[in-house]
Amino acid sequence: MDAAAEHAKSAETSRLAGAIDCDVHPRAPYLRELMPYFDAHWADTARYRDVLMRELTSFPPNAPLMRRPDLGVAGECGGTLATLQAQVLDRWQLRAAIVNPLFAGSMMHDPHLGTALCRAHNDWIAREWLDKDARLRASIVVNLGRPENAAGEINRVAMDRRFVQVIVPVQTEIPLGRSVHKPIFEALVQHGLPLGIHAGSMFRNPASQSGFYSTFSEDYTAHISAFTAQVANLISEGVFAEYPDLKIVLIESGVSWMPPFMWRFSKDWRGVRNEVPWVDRSPADMMRDHVRLTTQPFDAPAGTVAKIVQQLGSPDMLLFSSDYPHWHFDGDDAVPEGMPEEQVGKMLVDNVLATYPRLGGIQ
Ligand code: ZN
User: Which residues surround ligand 1, an ion (CB under 5 A)?
Assistant: First the structure.
């Protein structure tokens, strides 16, 4: 690397010093690693049911989307603690990073087994990641199959304030706003936790309304429709009206689809708003108050980034993320090219602290 390139790189990395990365991915544990965290019953059950946790991540660990070939460790769908420290935390001198597990326990059809797996995983993350680096924070994994169980797990894990949100895949069995999920929202609000909705699936429904696709690229692109459906449902079912302090974070959703969706949903709502009298203001305004988006991947050409940010109509919605070590990870170019400078400062720290109250104490 010549001197000019080296200078440009150090300027970019120093811009990230003190930032908070809202989406990095830990590798999925092997079943044997979770065994110490099961009680006797679930250890026995996990053994005889031969739970295929690692294979049940949204994409197979070796799928290209799951790891950039020059990062992390071969065969792992996320980073190890050592690679995350070297390639992200130390390199950029971050203040903190939120590890977001994409964990098979969330997808289990048996909600009791799924909750047991999630419970073991949450404890494993606390011991093997959070205890080993004070800059790390984590998302709580839950199984949505039995919302009372999920709420119980949130109440248990939330006692550890290093857990800063609950994470679920965007493609769920039923829409998140349905009242059956009320125990989960009650627990979120009680503990001041946002709900993180990450790209991924419980594999109950096709990725599109037209049926199952054949390829990863089709599936991944189709996620946009799942994100729009969840946001529209949360607003229409009155979740934000009932929980005015609740925030949701759309993680790895992309950003460019948001302004046209805000416009279209608000326009259609005007014509049929008698359906939802509890939606007492424009859905776009509700999204500006309640919905946040992580920045990686910023799915638009550099020349359009500033326009998209302007069309969001709020400087508060974007949260910095690198998506390490997935394919979208852009290394030292983690701030999308063309991002207005005043937005960069907000998304690196201010917006993150406003979204995650539990991050407030990190220096
Ligand atoms: Zn991600």
Answer: 23, 252, 323
